[in-house]
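Researcher: Here's the sequence for the chain we discussed earlier.
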Amino acid sequence: MDTATPPGSARLTFRDATDADAPALVALIESAYRGDSSRTGWTTEADLLEGQRTDEEGVRAVINAPAGRLLAVERDGGLIACCQLEHRGDAAYFGMFAVRPDSQGGGLGKVIIAAAERTARESWGVAEMHMTVISAREDLIAWYERRGYRRTGQFTPFPYGDERFGIPQRDDLAFELLVKNIEAL
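Model: Thanks. This is the structure I predict for it:
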């Protein structure tokens, strides 16, 4: 699937990720959220969490999930972003969203999330898109709110003690559910 992109940028290609993409996807996701490289973009979680964000096993589980797909987004043949879509009844779940840090801030994220919403609606006929965001990420939540997502006030605890999700740097982390009606898009 091709889609329009922000002015001045090359065309994007969206495709379903494969198992062979797992190492590159892990590197992309880690670069967007963890460590010093993530600080060149604005989506970093480096001050909240250390350690890994995901691993190849976790990425392959998303790729091979029967009710979902992991979209790989390429520009000029190079991987620049990804996002997870999972069919959950009347809604789709949006997750594992990452944009290369040096490609952030130019409108690419808006294009990708709009394409993901369209894909979920067209593929599964869902009325809503759901996602969870670490509640301490006020700047990221505000970005999603500008895209039409609303805070629900529903929280789930952060999995403290499970280093597969990182090593928390504070003790007040939780995930908040954000929801958007995508039926009329």
